[in-house]
Amino acid sequence: MIRAMWTAATGMNAQQANMDVIANNLANVNTNAFKRSRAEFADLLYQIQRMPGTNSSNVSINPVGIQVGGGVRTTTVAKEWVQGNMRQTNNELDLAIDGNGFFQVTRPDGTIMYTRNGAFKKDNVGNLVSGDGDQMSPVITVPSGALKVDIAQDGTVSVLLPGVTQATQIGQIQLVRFDNPSGLIAQGNNLFLPSFASGPPIQGTGGFATGFGLIQQGYLESSNVNLAEEMVNMIIAQRSYEVNSKAIQASDDMMSLANNVRR
Prior knowledge:
Layout: H1 2-27, E1 37-43, E2 46-50, E3 66-69, E4 72-79, E5 86-88, E6 95-98, E7 102-106, E8 112-115, E9 121-122, E10 128-129, E11 135-136, E12 148-151, E13 156-160, E14 168-172, E15 175-177, E16 185-188, E17 191-193, E18 202-204, E19 214-217, E20 219-221, H2 227-259
Antiparallel strand pairs: 1-4, 2-3, 5-20, 6-19, 7-8, 7-11, 7-15, 9-10, 12-13, 13-14, 15-18, 16-17
Helix pairs in contact: 1-2
């Protein structure tokens, strides 16, 4: 009965972690390019009271044995790098990556980070920056007075200047990909840092032939959170938490009955 209480307690802890992940997914349903997370679990060590395959008599063996589990633990909280829906904005500085890749931005301290959020703006000198003011890397500067900004699917940036009939190329947006994007370290603000698990950043230009996605101007990538799926997962987590709490209560009742036995 004591074992049952501890086992059920691990189940409650696991479902609490599961609920935390689901709540974060729901909170970011409208976050540009947000990738939902999924909690994954594994069973704990088993107490083997009878080993399968051991002799049960001189002429037979135990075909199954007795193995009592010790509960569950959270192993990973993994992001699902599924493409979100493309939402048209018609803003010439809104960019979405259709396929594999990340934008590079430079933080004020000089750290280069990576993001799928392509809601870029212009700062006071015309540099393309994120909503938090992080500069795109390499730096793209739109000349003052530019009439139109055109960004091709491979990341080539061109502008139309007053008095000029042909567009002028001013830079090239570089994308980055990782062999294992699930190994990236989430920093908040839609930003990620590489780790040993993610592998080093691989830089290139947009294009399926180069292993990168295509840059779509005038679009933003939506969150890949499915509200209906998350609601179902939340109900399952809630019911599982409730059942585990009842298992603790039942074990406590059984211990109470055992303590009150009269000879």
